[in-house]
Specification:
single chain, 960 residues, alpha/beta, Aspartate Aminotransferase, domain 2, 7-stranded mixed sheet, 24 strands, 11% strand, binds pyridoxal-5'-phosphate, PyrdxlP-dep_Trfase
Length: 960
């Protein structure tokens, strides 16, 4: 069978039945009726003919073989590490983990929330700071986030100091972010005394990019004296041996957790971290897992402080971080759980041991080592290309620093043969034992990872079961449809996913010279070419590592374009009220002022309001950011008009391409007015969502914007004050989350032009089928031409809420008892549920969802009919744990059976959530963001708090 027939859920007969139900003869007829004619693309996409799964894997194997894996002793932020097989197979390669969604619905996400809380605890402990997030996109953008945080927190200063000892890519990404905020960025050696004034803060390296370890205390004190903040960019593994930045008074710590068991992946995806002092916690970007309690008083995890998120704060958001490499954070956290504090220290000691033996052997051979004190990286003086080439021939990658020195950075997989080979590369013979090279005064004295979870697992059996125990608590795509609007939770083709851990892909260091990475580059360029064709643009950059980073990169391209033309005054970004929150947050990160344009009655852009805003701001308009089809799930026919109007006054048109599942193969944003779009490859193009990342958010641009595509942070340093038009790097490596690009490559290669079009058509069919079947129970809020929706539909509960008290959140929680992940809650319209079924769900699964929703509607009717009060209803008290429906106490008027088995289909397919409804407000009032003590879970049954009313007003983490 061809791949696309496996990808699309319904069989031909089922497709026909669904078409009949909504009154269309064929998929083509449906698409003709749904999509405004003027928007359709001419002809079909020019893509190669589709491959079977086996052919696609054979081709990927060919590409993989074109890479020469040099064993990485390069460092610069990326180190060889060993992913324990139990974690690789149990997490990275396990659909239960990789197909989960961001844990906005905490009751069905306790497993991954626990894993992320473990991540936060590791980071918090090792950095010695009060609170850590989970997680950020990469080390370089984490530094950029730190610059943003410092400038928000310290209003007075205008200058930021970046340590010249930071990795070059970190300096370049952070410096550009600072410049966008109009900060004065000074790159200076922070191992020397600080003289600058007017500071917002400084980022100091610990250790430096050359491996040198310098006490960060003097710079921390000096910057504090001048009123600034200090961020320490730390090596997470080195912190097992080095004293924690928090102990020296650092305000912020950042870094990457790649070397905690996450493969090199040719640069990403890897989870970065940020930890801050308590006083900065509300300013911290990214997600934060916190501990709250459920309706019965049991501890339960949830995303905390969500009101600071972009969804609600929009242009006032602390950052635009949404998708954030969660699967990789989980992987790193599991690595920490498996090894524990003693194991991590042992690994760090072994690495340090190799580095010291190497350094001493080099010295004994009569050569010089640049830095006397280091953790894992040794710089050999008077060495150059010759040594680099010789070692490459022997299969090793080392880093040529300048014409006079070569750096060798040790990782977890080093052995004595490697050490011998490396020494030989420099002409040194014997291995000599080395002295410890960690400065005595910086030697770690504080304890870390003392919590039981890091000290109770020693065997593989225990680890396997811990991973399984957490995974079993969660609902992911491997168990049920996840009908989240605007999220496109569709099938992730195993034929593509499987290849990401192939060593010829996974073990390639991002700074490996091009001559060894032909396979990687061919694959990525081929994919970029296909995406260019699919979007109708002229070029695509693969660098952004999330949709929101794509937004930022696209807006920066627009900003730089205007600047290059002397249009410095163009600093306004028009954004419709219905836009995804990241749009406004990204615009403000790009230092654009946001002007909101209203929504018309029918959900489209209010053209009169748009005209007014354009007339008022014409000369200052940099761009409009629109989502197509809009977040209202409708193909608006005004999009071309909107684009023309903005172009007429000299603005640029950004089309958010997160909803490409409604367009691929039938219409192209580059053809209907867009100058730039980002795509969420972790939606339409099948990269799994991973519980909140990996993300890949490439941008496509028209020809005039090509010079402003993201530059390479490692090689293209653009000095401050340079007048030359240039692109701005947004991630530390040129191809961002390169390591998962095989997945969209495989999806497109196996689908071909017709397959992609069929996927889109079936996605539109599924949404219209659900809308049609549910419209009587829950009215569909917006429809477009011919009463049709696009690939998702919004169900309006406002009237039901007004009449019965039942909220959209109640329905979302009740769906858990039916075994479903809730649809998107209250976005983009309050009091609604947005359903996106995708093409991958078969008719039986769609019908199961429809049955559940109709059954819930009947439960609501009992309240309408006065049979039961809202507060006492089965729906308001949902969801129900196995414990709650089996213990003696049962304080409800409805039966246990109605609570747990409301429809027959559940009898042989029941999911019980591990917790009852979570008290959202309690968690924010009592913020706790590290692992709670084990006793916290030890509530004896007779001490149970009575099942009480909890505040169920929708809070942000309910949303989607
Ligand atoms: C319409 C839209 N734009 C942008 C984004 C942001 O993408 P990401 O989460 O990858 O940053 C999303 C994510 O949900 C989205 O739905």
């Amino acid at each position: 069978m061809d791949y696309i027939s496996r990808h699309i859920g319904p069989t031909r007969d089922e497709t026909q039945e669904m078409l009949e139900a909504i009154g269309y003869a064929s998929l083509d007829a449906l698409i003709d009726a749904a999509i405004p004619q003027g928007l359709r693309m001419d002809g079909v996409l020019k893509l190669p003919k589709p491959l079977t799964e086996y052919e696609a894997q054979a081709r990927l194997q060919e590409l993989a073989k074109k890479n020469t894996v040099l064993k990485a002793f390069y460092g610069q932020g990326f180190f060889s590490t060993l992913t324990p097989p139990v974690i690789r197979r149990g997490v990275v390669e396990d659909a239960g983990w990789y197909t989960a969604y961001t844990p906005y619905q905490p009751e069905i996400s306790q497993g991954r929330l626990e894993a992320l809380l473990n991540f936060q605890t590791v980071v918090q402990d090792l950095t010695g700071l009060d609170i850590a997030n989970a997680s950020l996109l990469d080390e370089a953008s984490a530094a950029a986030e730190a610059v943003g945080l410092m400038s928000r927190a310290v209003k007075k200063g205008r200058r930021v100091l970046l340590d010249s000892r930071l990795h070059p890519q970190v300096i370049n990404v952070a410096a550009e972010r600072g410049r966008v905020f109009d900060l004065e960025v000074e790159v200076t050696d922070l191992s020397q005394p600080v003289v600058a004034e007017d500071l917002v803060g400084a980022i100091v390296a610990y250790p430096g990019t050359e491996g040198d370890i310098v006490d960060p205390s003097p710079v921390i004190d000096a910057v504090h004296e001048r009123g600034g903040l200090v961020c320490v960019d730390a090596d997470i593994l080195a912190l097992t041996l080095l004293e924690a930045p928090g102990e020296f008074g650092a305000d912020i710590a950042i870094g990457t957790t790649q070397r905690l068991g996450v493969p090199l992946f040719y640069g990403g995806p890897h989870a970065a971290f940020m930890a801050v002092t308590d006083k900065l916690r509300r300013q911290m970007p990214g997600r934060l897992v916190g501990v709250s309690k459920d309706a019965e008083g049991y501890p339960a995890y949830r995303l905390a402080l969500q009101t600071r998120e972009q969804h609600i704060r929009r242009e006032k958001a602390t950052s635009n971080i949404c998708t954030a490499q969660a699967l990789l954070a989980v992987t790193a956290s599991m690595y920490a759980v498996y090894h524990g504090p003693a194991g991590l220290t042992e690994i760090a000691e072994a690495i340090h041991g190799y580095a010291t033996r190497f350094a001493t052997s080099i010295e004994k051979a009569g050569m010089r080592v640049r830095h006397a004190q280091f953790f894992d990286t040794v710089v050999v003086e008077d060495a150059g290309q010759e040594a680099v080439d010789k070692l490459a021939k022997a299969g090793y990658l080392v880093r040529k620093l300048d014409d006079e020195a070569v750096a060798v950075a040790f990782g977890e997989d080093c052995d004595d043969d490697d050490l011998r080979a490396l020494l030989e590369g420099f002409g040194a013979g014997e291995i000599s034992e080395g002295e410890r090279r960690i400065p005595a005064e910086l030697q770690r004295k504080t304890e870390f990872m003392t919590h039981e979870v890091f000290n109770s697992i020693s065997s593989e059996t225990q680890m396997m079961r811990y991973i399984r125990k957490l995974g079993d608590k969660d609902l992911a795509l491997d168990r049920t449809m996840i009908p989240l609007g605007s999220c496109t939770m569709k099938l992730n083709p195993t034929a593509g996913v499987e290849t990401i851990t192939w060593p010829e892909f996974a073990n390639v260091h991002p700074f490996t010279p091009d001559e060894y990475t032909a396979g990687w580059r061919e694959l990525i360029e081929e994919l970029a070419g296909w995406l260019t064709e699919i979007t109708g643009y002229d070029a695509v950059s693969m660098q952004p590592n999330s949709g929101a980073t794509g937004e930022y990169a696209g807006l920066m391209a627009i900003r730089q374009y205007h600047l290059s033309r002397g249009d410095d005054q163009r600093d306004i970004c028009i954004i419709p009220a219905s836009a995804h929150g990241t749009n406004a947050a990204s615009a403000s990160l790009a230092n654009l002022r946001v002007v909101v344009v209203a929504t018309a009655e029918d959900g489209s852009i209010d053209m009169a309001d748009l005209d007014e805003k354009i007339a008022k701001h014409a000369d200052n308009i940099a761009a409009i950011m629109i989502t197509y089809p809009s977040t209202h799930g409708v193909y608006e026919d005004t999009v071309r008009d909107v684009a023309d109007k903005i172009h007429a006054v000299g603005g640029q048109v950004y089309i958010d391409g997160a909803n490409m599942n409604a367009l691929t193969g039938v219409a192209r944003p580059g053809d209907f007015g867009g100058d730039v779009s980002h795509l969420n490859l972790h939606k339409t193009f099948t990269i799994p969502h991973g519980g909140g990342g990996p993300g890949v958010g490439p941008i496509g641009v028209g020809e005039h914007l090509i010079p402003f595509l993201p530059s390479d942070a490692n090689t293209d340093y653009v000095a401050e004050g340079s007048d030359a038009a240039h692109g701005v790097p947004v991630a530390g490596t040129y191809y961002g989350s390169a390591g998962v690009t095989q997945i969209p490559w495989a999806y497109i290669a196996m689908s071909g032009a017709e397959g992609l079009k069929a996927a889109t058509s079936n996605a539109v069919l599924a949404a219209n089928y659900v809308a049609h079947e549910l419209n009587d129970a829950f009215p569909v809020l917006y429809t477009g031409e011919n009463g049709l929706v696009a690939h998702e539909c919004i169900l309006d509960l406002n009237d039901i809420t007004a009449r019965t008290g039942v909220t959209a959140a109640d329905v979302a929680k009740r769906l858990v008892d039916y075994g479903f992940h809730a649809p998107t809650l209250a976005f983009p319209v309050a009091g609604t549920l947005m359903v996106e079924p995708t093409e991958s769900e078969d008719k039986a699964e769609l019908d199961r969802f429809i049955e559940a929703m109709c059954s819930i509607r009947e439960e609501i009717r009992q309240i309408e009919n006065g049979e039961i009060e809202y507060e006492k209803s089965v729906i308001h008290n949902a969801p129900y744990t196995a414990h709650s429906v089996t213990r003696t106490e049962w304080p409800y008027d409805f039966s246990r059976e109605q609570a747990a088995y409301p429809v027959d289909t559940l009898v042989h397919q029941k999911y019980f959530p591990p917790v009852r409804r979570i008290d959202e407000a309690y968690g924010d009032r009592n913020l706790q963001c590290a692992c709670p003590p084990p006793e916290a879970f030890d509530i004896a049954v007779d001490e149970l708090e009575p099942v009480e009313e909890i505040d169920v007003t929708t809070t942000e983490e309910n949303r989607k």
